[in-house]
């Protein structure tokens, strides 16, 4: 099999990274066939915190690069580029730690990697063939995050807004926003930007036919 092409989709929390990646995946998966396209999540590489109490886990700064095991993600990306299967961790937002399961992840021609701090880390950055940044305004992200986290991540409005003020917003300005400078493509208006989806799909179709120029 040809060497996988790795596409990073970075940007603030609730900017639409997951929706954008999932839409591209779902609209191309049949066309690209078996081993065509898959999504890997940076969030899966949040550190295991099973040794901490729930109260301690709630104090973690999840928007600082140290919250992630980026070294393991980097090692896994290296394996995938060499067409080796990996076992990605599986993270649970409700318990704030990894589960006992892993996800067997077989390399595909196109691998979309999605996460907040992918472009802030130099080793990771070097792994990506295309770097995309979702440039959704922070107030829109906050509204979407409140709605999503209440339904999907068992949070209260108070916990989301406290976390936003204490860590999410300051870490955005310290690490995420500056990492936009590394992006090849900056996308406005979030995960439903139809033209951006079509442009990425066209590039992916082209890359799926050609051996990548590494
Ligand atoms: N352009 C958009 N319009 C409306 N809702 C959106 C849009 N983009 C994303 N969302 C919604 O906002 C929430 C956060 O999006 P998500 O893709 O999970 O963001 P991220 O992966 O960046 O954290 C989700 O509920 C998603 O469906
Ligand atoms: O245990 C956890 C782990 C992460 N978070 C928050 O999640 C977002 C990143 O995920 P997105 O899907 O990009 O929103 C990050 O901002 C963390 O604050 C968490 O709250 N708890």
TrEMBL record:
GO biological process: CTP salvage; UMP salvage
NCBIfam families linked: PRK05480.1, udk
Phosphoribulokinase/uridine kinase domain mapped to chain residues: 6-195
Enzyme class: transferase
GO MF annotations in UniProt: ATP binding; cytidine kinase activity; uridine kinase activity
Places the protein is found: Cytoplasm
Principal cellular location given in the protein's record: cytoplasm
Family under the similarity heading: Belongs to the uridine kinase family.
Annotated protein name in UniProt: Uridine kinase
Catalytic activity entry: cytidine + ATP = CMP + ADP + H(+); uridine + ATP = UMP + ADP + H(+)
GO cellular component: cytoplasm
One Pfam family named in its UniProt record: PRK
Species in which this protein is naturally found: Litorilituus lipolyticus
Pathway participation: Pyrimidine metabolism; CTP biosynthesis via salvage pathway; CTP from cytidine: step 1/3; Pyrimidine metabolism; UMP biosynthesis via salvage pathway; UMP from uridine: step 1/1
Keyword Kinase found: yes
Keywords, in A-Z order: ATP-binding, Cytoplasm, Kinase, Nucleotide-binding, Transferase
HAMAP family: Uridine_kinase
Coiled-coil blocks: none
SUPFAM superfamilies recorded: P-loop containing nucleoside triphosphate hydrolases (SSF52540)
EC numbers on record: 2.7.1.48
